[in-house]
Amino acid sequence: MAKQPMLKFVDIAREMPSKRDASDRRADFDEIYAEYADAKATEQAARCSQCGVPYCQTHCPLHNNIPDWLRLTAMGRLEEAYEVSQSTNTFPEICGRICPQDRLCEGNCVIEQSGHGTVTIGAVEKYITDTAWENGWVKPITPTQERTESVGIIGAGPGGLAAADMLRRAGVQVTVYDRYDRAGGLLTYGIPGFKLEKDIVTRRNAQLEQGGVRFVLNCNVGEDLSFDDIRAQHDAVIIATGVYKSRDLGGPGAGAKGIVRAIDYLTASNRASNFGDNVPEFDSGELNAKGKKIVVIGGGDTAMDCVRTAIRQGATSVKCLYRRDRANMPGSQREVQNAEEEGVQFEWLTAPKGFKGEPVNAVIVEKMRLGQPDATGRQRPEVIEGSDYDEPADIVIKALGFEPEELPTLWGCPELEVTRWGTVKAEFTSGRTALPDVYAIGDIVRGASLVVWAIRDGRDCVEAVLQDLAAKAAIAAE
User: Where in this chain does the record put each FAD/NAD(P)-binding domain (predicted)?
Assistant: First the structure.
């Protein structure tokens, strides 16, 4: 009788891949976690309890078949594990690195609830796909039959790229338009290299290009090319622009020099540190933390990216102001721990009241307490009167989240319907908008969200696009 390969969580403790020492991590932008060795990946995958109702799977936006690929990994059947993994996820090696597993799959693991420590799902997923690339198991995009229909995708972020991948595999002709000089969106320029190595992204971009996806880069829709022109060139258009408009700060001095947007700061760092681009704002020190006191305002994953980047750039101090406490912050707790290890100081229950200096030299901080719950159920921060103090700062980074740009105005398309929040109105799952043959996916529909949700939206939308193209072809054939 074959030995049971699973249910080892009682005998084997949870063990993440080894993490580089914080003093070493601060010196570069390299990945901080080592890769699992084969034996360790097999051992950790074997901890899965194979529960009848897999909460890890139901809480994954892509509904990845996690128990099955964990079991296959535990049995040493890695190529099959990869096939199962990629069947529901276009970019599993990216999700394995940047998904907040502590809030999604791992946070809902049954054995975690029983006190045995969650299965290290993200680390195993990363290991499976990295092994697949190394062994040539990742298949090129080779449609069985080419189709004449053409789809234009506006935005080369995770949602747009996921849609491009699925459409090309179906034989549809695909053109992706993006404002940046490299595809990937936030995967390329927003997320630091220590969380997502840039060769991982460029490898996928190359696969798409080699598979027949056409990229039109450095293209600002509404300026370099009109939205109407794009619609005229394609049978369908998918809007996947993401949200890039930064939420602003108020208070006296909020317009001072030295108060910068998180997206500008992270883009400059990624260009200079990961791609070796010439970035004048980085070289001048305007968007470079070296030798400076840095204050980051916000508590999400973007704020964590900023504080950890500033540490690596050689800031003399890095402080993060967040108006709620640690338990209520939206960012990954794993990221907070990594940041603290690297030297970031968190000032919980604090918020900016104003700013001093031109350029800025201090943040006027007021202390907060948590009051009654708001409409979302979270306790509302309340100001503690008379608690103000000055926090010295040479650069203040606004990491308060992102909002949609005004696409109907920017694109000269007032008939493109948006919600009161400025997001594009689109059907749930299909992405269909009120405009014929126009779809919208990802953050431009949801508001600022996770990469994994953008991938899910891209995949779902393609199903609808293919259905609609087939329906149009059937009518034309009658």
Answer: 151-458
Give Dmax over CA atoms of the chain in angstroms: 76
Residue 9 falls within a domain, yes or no?
A: no
Number of domains in the chain: 3
The span from the first CA to the last CA of the chain, in angstroms, equals 60
In angstroms, rounded to a whole number, what is the distance separating the alpha carbons of residues 164 and 158?
Answer: 10
Residues 47, 110 within the same domain: yes
Contact status, residue 262 vs residue 275, Cβ threshold 8 Å: no
pTM score: 0.94
Where are the strands (E) in 357-418, listed by range?
Answer: 362-373, 379-383, 389-392, 395-398, 402-403
151, β-bridge pairs: 174, 236
Instruction: Give backbone dihedrals phi and psi of 441, rounded to 5 degrees, phi first.
Output: -145, 165
CB under 8 Å to 297, separation ≥6 — which residues?
A: 249, 303, 320, 321, 351, 352, 363, 396, 397, 398, 399, 400
| pLDDT tens series, the chain, 478 aa | 345 677 567 677 788 888 999 999 999 999 999 888 788 889 999 999 998 889 999 999 999 999 999 999 999 999 999 999 999 999 999 999 999 998 899 999 988 877 888 999 999 999 999 999 999 999 999 999 999 999 999 999 999 999 999 999 999 999 999 999 999 999 999 999 999 999 999 999 999 999 999 999 999 999 999 999 999 999 999 999 999 988 888 899 999 999 999 999 999 999 999 999 999 999 999 999 999 999 999 999 999 999 999 999 999 999 999 999 998 888 888 899 999 999 999 999 999 999 999 999 999 999 999 999 888 888 899 999 999 999 999 999 999 989 999 999 999 999 999 999 999 999 999 999 999 999 999 999 999 999 999 999 999 999 999 999 999 999 988 7
Distances in Å between the Cα of 192 and the Cα atoms of 97, 113, 179, 242, 478 are 12, 32, 19, 18, 53
142 located within any domain: no
Token digits of residue 68: 């099955």
Residue 181: CB atoms within 10 A of its CB come to 12
Residue 184 belongs to domain spanning: 150-243+404-477
